Every structure is written in C-alpha cells, then in structure tokens.
Amino acid sequence: xxxxxxxxxKEKYKDLITNxxxxxxxxxxxxxxxxxxxxxxxxxxxxxxxxxxxxFQRSFGAIGEDIANTSYDVSLKIDExxxxxxxxxxxxxxxxxxxxxxxxxxxxxxGWSIILAKAKSNAERLSDKKLxxxxxxxxxxxxxxxxxxxxxxxxxxxxxxxxxxDTSDEVYIKSIYHVLMPSKKGEIxxxxxxxxxxxPIDINAIKILGSTTLxxxxxxxxxxxQNVYKYxxxxxxxxxxxxxxxxxxxxxxxxxxxxxxxxxENLHKQTLEIPNEKKIGETVSWMIANENGEVEENSGYNGFxxxxxxxxxxxYRKKRISSFKKKYENELSRSDMGFIISKLQTILLKEYPAKxxxxxxxxxxxxxxxxxxxxxxxxxxxxxxxMVYRPVSEMYIPIPDxxxxxxxxxxxxxxxxxxxxxxxxxxxxNKNERIFDLEFLPSENRIVAYINQDNGKSxxxxxxxDILGEWILRGVFQLKExxxxxxxxxxxxxxxxxxLIKYDxxxxxxxxxxxxxxxxxxxxxxxGWVSRKKKS
Length: 536
Known about the structure:
Helices cover 33% and strands 22% of the residues. By secondary structure, the chain is α+β, with helices and mostly antiparallel strands. It is globular, with a radius of gyration of 28 Å.
C-alpha cells in the first residue's frame, strides 16, 4: 500500500507526524543529572496514536472506522477497484508482541477460561514445561481454533463493509497494518514506517508453540506459518509478533524544536489557515439489539424469520401443500414425504396467536428445515422454504423510539419526512416524498431509501431489498441463509450499533455506518434504550 500512495500526500503525512514528534521534549521527563544532555540523546520521538490516526485520514482522505473488536482504524480507496482496510498502530522499534484483538464476550460464552483452567491444572501437576505443553496441546488447539474462526469472521465482515454491495469481483480489497515505530531514548531520533499484511489465520496450518511460561500456562503461543500469535487469558487478548525490523518501508529523521515550551507559549499568535471540509450537521446512533441483548425477532434484520406470508383465503395454503406432494411424490421416500407434509400442515394451517405459540411454530419449522436440508435436494429445499419462510434476504433497518425521534427531528431525512398525519401513527407525506439517498460508509455505495411503517419505524430500500439484505446479513454479519441475527453474533463481530450522518450541505443524503457503542459510556448522539446510560 505504502508505495501506491501519492508522494505529495505522503510528504504531508510525514510532516504532520515528524512536526508533532519534534515537540517531544515538552512531553518527556529527564532523569536527574541529564540537564546538560543533548535532546537527541535523552528523548525518544513521541507518536500519539490518536493524532497518527487523524493525520493519516487528513493526508490520504481515508475514512475513520469505529469497530471495536478489530484493529481496523481507517479505510482507504486508491481507486474504484483498489481499496484498503488499515489497522494503524504505533510502538517502539524494539517492542515485542502487540495486541491486535480482544474476545471478552466470546471467551466467556464459549468457556475458554474453563478449557485453559485444565491446562493450568496439568502444568501444576507435571511441573515441567515441556511435558505440560505436550499434554496441553489439544486444549490450546481447541482455543486457538475458536480464536481463528472469530478473527477470520471479523476480517471478512470488515472487508464486506468497504467492498459494499454494488460492486464486481474485480474490486480488490486488502487489509494492511500501517505502523509507526519510533527509536528509543539515546538513539538517533527516527520514526520507522512499517507495513505488513493484515491476514486471516490459516486454520488448517495452526501449530501450537506452547505456554508462555510454566507459571502462566493459561497464556500460550501458536503460529499458522504466516505469523506468531500469543493469547492472554486474563483479558481475552490476542497479540501478534510484527517482526519490527523486517517490515520497515521508510524511515524519517526527527529534528527536535530547540525550545518546545516557547513554541507552545507563542502558538496563539500564529494565524492558521484551515481548509474547508464537508461539515456534519447531525448524527444519531443506536443499538441493534435491545436492552436484554436480543435482536428483534421476525422483523427488522430477521424479517425472513417471521410467519409465512402465504395467503390464507380460498384454502390457498392447503392447495399449496397438495401441489407440493403431487409434484415430488416420486422423488421422496414415504417416510420423508409424510414427515414434510405433516410439518407443513402444522406450520401453515394452525393459528399461532401468542408469542409462545410462535416460538413453538419455529421449533417445528427448525425440525422441518433440518430434515429437508439433509435430503440434499436444492429444488425441494427451496420449495419447502418458500412456503414456511419469508424471502431469505428480506430486511429493513428499524429506528428505535421512532415517533419520538421524528417529532424532534422532522427534517433529518429530508424536509418534513418525519411528520405525521393529525392524531395518527401514519406519516404525512406520500411514499415518493419520503425518499432520500442512503450512503453506506466506508464503501460509499448508495441506495434510494425511504421511511416506512407505523410511526416511521423502518428504513427500507426501494427496489433493492434483496441486494441490501444479502449484503448486510450474509456479508457484514456473516450469517448463513435462514440464520437469525443474534446478540451473540454482534458481540463476536464487534458490531453492535448503527450511526446515521446528516451533512449540512446536502439534505437528501444520509450516511450510514456500522459501529460499536460502549454501553456504559454511550456517545452523545445515542437514542433508544442505551441513551439512558449517558453520563450527566
């Protein structure tokens, strides 16, 4: 990636980073007796990670990413067919392994610590690292495989976000770590630019290297032939050895300002010219799951999981079942056909008025799904599923507390789109007057969308529902067909919320990005149940 970037933009980035680092004296403390020591011998260049990320965005026009459980910080489009997801890191050139991911929720739900507790017990019993590592290898392998699966799903999900849905197979998406590695105190003041591939873990090549120490057998290392990883059980963190010296692609000299404190004292006297940028007018964010950590059943993201939409009039459902039986009676055994017809009749001909009744219907439907899938006949599977499920990629984006939001922001999506008929839950404007462009970040794909349903609770696409659902459900959330979105899946991927962005210069385009919200410290623009946790 580094060698594909515009030379002028790279110089701007270099200037931002090295100019900041030139003030390191103001942020560093010297040891006693170092008063007469030269700055370039006593101070290490400082790289502030937040400034680094912002400088990268500003220099190269990258888009910031707000995903919790990956190290992707920005996305960068070189051209229409070349895009990068970039993990931005800074650490000393002499540093060891670096944290690259965390799996707190998954480690608890899947019992990783329980597995590693067995490894600890074995190590204490054997009192020999070599023997303990040999005995614990299957336990470490079990956890390593779980780590690899989640790590790879997160990478795949993030790539889908930047790739988008309106694209061809010719779009090249690559993941990269971009690293700044300053020299240490006493060395020549330099910042080394590093770059290495941000790779999924090769599950088939995982080899366990053993525990980090005999005294700490719940921490272990493994490799996939591409990288060496370390897992630390205490905080469910994954580390990687970056091979610091081997990934250097550029080196910058740092010249310290002679009197950094004088610079800060006189900074207010400088006249700064700041270029105009696209201004954000309003933003709003909300959680995808409810307060109990559950994603809404039957609608929203799980629209396919609702009850069948087949008409009930004129015995249509009974006729549809009979038609199926007649069409496939020579392709199915008597046992399989009897099972399928029985379950179809139960699902389609009975009434399920209460929530518990609907859950019972779903349990029956799951049994039917498993039996039909086991037949390995795609035509029969599609025929059955078309009767008992809604379209597999049917979905809309629900807005929490929608009536309250529209009443306080009637023009958020466009002039008067969020207004209602008098004493009604119905929106005041006609469908074609509730239309706006929805732009997905960071891919910049756009669809024509509109606000719909009672109280304006849904954002739906016009004419592209299947495309939108296929991309979000199968791509972003990495779900199999007919697999519901759950709170657990959101935790696994590190995506639990949505943010909408309204720009000042365009009232007919709304940006949308998938983000992570810290429930205990939600952002100021949060609405819905999580907004009650905002700190006063």
